[in-house]
User: Which sequence fits this backbone?
């Protein structure tokens, strides 16, 4: 059971809250990665408030629960906000993001014991392997729940991703739903300029994955796609959701450009962003 | 001088295989992963008895390390197997982030370490692995000395919560330790008590230190020989107790002199009681193709090299 199981209207409200958290968190420390965080907000909110079965009483082993891994760890603000809003820890702790002695490290970590996080990520390309390992353990344990992992599209340039992409179909890891955030942007420019990814559907299908596509910034299409992904599990193939998002979604001056990959808004930009994100109070965490 | 005899020679990697087989029978959480080197790692018996707990990864070591980290989530104890070179340098970042920093209970089991890999040459003869692994926070680093000790260490690390690097080798060497020994992580093993020089050896060099001890005894030198099978955490107490008596040190390892056992011991000495010390180790160079014995001789890793180092360090003590 998902502990929240919200309606679409409620999910939209929560997504606005999470986006406000994101811009506040990166503004407060003048660092962090707002672009990909804003783009993936609807996906995180969907998983934690509708799709995944889990308990907010966190255990590392997560027996009988769906597990989520974030491979592109730099979009930690969206994960931290979602975890806090979902009840893993007090949203007030979001104010410690990237500060000394915080559990909210720049990139997600287990060292400080933050509830909801099961592996460190940041150095790219490792999350799919970790998710496959966790999925294999679930099979050994006869645990029918699922493993989710999110990767960035630029991250697919790492070789380890393709080692894992070969492994999962060969070994019928069919309790796994991987998602690629296809925002088309990376630090130095568009993915197609930096190192072309080409036809990802054809690539993953050629490797033997069950591939789905969805607009990741629209609950009306994203939720059915995630349902379809779930329905595709248990059938001998790993599942790959190619999710189109816009970097910076929800804040017009951050949208669609790689320039907001790893840059924080200044005071004036924060105010504009908050207005666009239906600000409620001066500081709502 | 204590006498050590042996009736057979075996490879330490076979000790690993035997230990893994026993774990397969006694610990249902142990799983094994291999990157296309099942025969070299002596994993066949484990696989035969536990096919559902064995994962053939293919030639994809990065994926193997990431998967091993993930498999701990849910309570499994993954043992990864490949050559030491591909167990460390090739996958340092995966080990660093997904295993060590994440505090995962993965056992990185590494065969064909050092020069004694032999004819394949320097591409495969890693001499930096102890250094890389010991620098990682949370990592335990173990380098046992013979078949029996490797088997015992393999069994012991399954009960240790946290990441472990277990290093062993390819060639057959004398089997001289107790087949029923209990392996204690972090506890140095007193091989022979002596008074003139402390020889701290690890891995394949422990037997050579014993041979050196006999040669030194004939010269009237009493060598204390200690097997440092656990390089991290280091048994500082045993080291300090020994050097309080002998006042000089020789370290012996099949590894680069930079970053290995010797440097760990030197740090203990510098912090506590600066004393003369000599390294028997590879002198910051790559290896090459040849037989293991030829290489150990050319690169200065024989019992005679230990004897010479002991004589040098004793003379420095008297200056």
Assistant:
């Amino acid at each position: 059971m998902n502990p929240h199981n919200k309606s679409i209207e409620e999910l939209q409200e929560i997504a606005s809250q999470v986006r406000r958290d994101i811009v506040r968190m990166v503004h407060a420390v003048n660092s962090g990665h707002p672009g990909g965080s804003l783009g993936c907000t609807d996906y995180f909110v969907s998983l934690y408030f509708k799709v995944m079965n889990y308990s907010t009483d966190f255990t590392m082993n997560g027996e009988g629960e769906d597990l989520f891994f974030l491979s592109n760890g730099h979009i930690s603000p969206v994960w931290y906000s979602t975890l806090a809003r979902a009840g893993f820890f007090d949203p007030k702790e979001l104010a410690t993001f990237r500060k000394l002695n915080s559990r909210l490290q720049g990139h997600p970590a287990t060292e400080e014991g933050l509830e909801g996080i099961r592996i460190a990520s940041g150095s790219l390309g490792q999350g799919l392997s970790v998710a496959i390992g966790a999925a294999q353990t679930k099979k050994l344990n006869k645990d029918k729940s699922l493993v989710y992992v999110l990767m960035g599209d630029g991250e697919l340039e790492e070789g380890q991703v393709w080692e894992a992409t070969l492994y999962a179909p060969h070994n019928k890891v069919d309790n796994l739903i991987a998602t690629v955030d296809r925002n088309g942007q990376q630090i130095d420019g568009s993915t197609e300029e930096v190192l072309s990814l080409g036809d990802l559907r054809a690539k993953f299908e050629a490797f033997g994955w069950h591939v789905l596509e969805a607009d990741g910034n629209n609950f009306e299409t994203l939720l059915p796609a995630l349902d379809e992904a779930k329905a595709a599990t248990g059938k001998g193939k790993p599942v790959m959701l190619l999710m189109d998002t816009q970097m910076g979604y929800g804040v017009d001056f951050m949208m669609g450009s790689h320039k907001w990959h790893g840059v924080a808004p200044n005071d004036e930009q924060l105010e504009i962003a908050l207005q666009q994100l239906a600000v409620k109070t001066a500081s709502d965490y | 001088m204590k006498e050590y005899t042996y009736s057979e020679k075996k490879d330490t990697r076979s000790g690993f295989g035997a230990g893994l087989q026993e774990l397969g029978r006694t610990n249902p959480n142990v799983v094994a992963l291999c990157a296309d080197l099942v025969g070299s790692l002596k994993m066949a018996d484990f696989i035969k008895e536990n096919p559902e707990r064995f994962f053939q990864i293919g030639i994809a070591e990065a994926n193997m390390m990431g998967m091993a980290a993930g498999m701990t989530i849910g309570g499994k104890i993954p043992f990864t197997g490949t050559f030491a070179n591909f167990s460390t340098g090739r996958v340092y970042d995966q080990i660093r982030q997904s295993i060590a920093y994440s505090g995962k209970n993965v056992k990185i089991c590494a065969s064909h370490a050092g020069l004694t890999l032999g004819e394949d040459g320097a591409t495969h003869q890693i001499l930096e692995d102890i250094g890389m692994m010991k620098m990682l926070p949370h990592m335990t680093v173990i380098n046992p000395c013979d078949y029996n000790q490797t088997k015992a260490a393999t069994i012991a690390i399954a009960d240790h919560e946290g990441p472990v690097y277990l290093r062993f080798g390819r060639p057959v060497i004398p089997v001289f330790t107790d087949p029923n020994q209990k392996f204690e992580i972090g506890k140095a093993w007193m091989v022979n008590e002596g008074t003139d020089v402390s020889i701290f050896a690890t891995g394949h060099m422990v037997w050579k230190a014993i041979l050196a001890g006999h040669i030194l005894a004939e010269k009237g030198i009493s060598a204390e020989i200690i097997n440092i099978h656990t390089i991290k955490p280091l048994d500082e107490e045993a080291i300090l107790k020994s050097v309080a008596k002998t006042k000089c040190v020789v370290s012996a390892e099949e590894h680069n002199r930079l970053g290995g056992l010797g440097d760990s011991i030197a740090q203990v000495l510098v912090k506590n009681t600066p004393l003369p010390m000599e390294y028997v180790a590879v002198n910051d160079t790559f290896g090459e193709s040849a037989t293991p014995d030829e290489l150990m001789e050319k690169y200065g890793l024989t019992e005679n090299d230990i004897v010479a180092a002991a004589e040098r360090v004793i003379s420095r003590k008297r200056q």
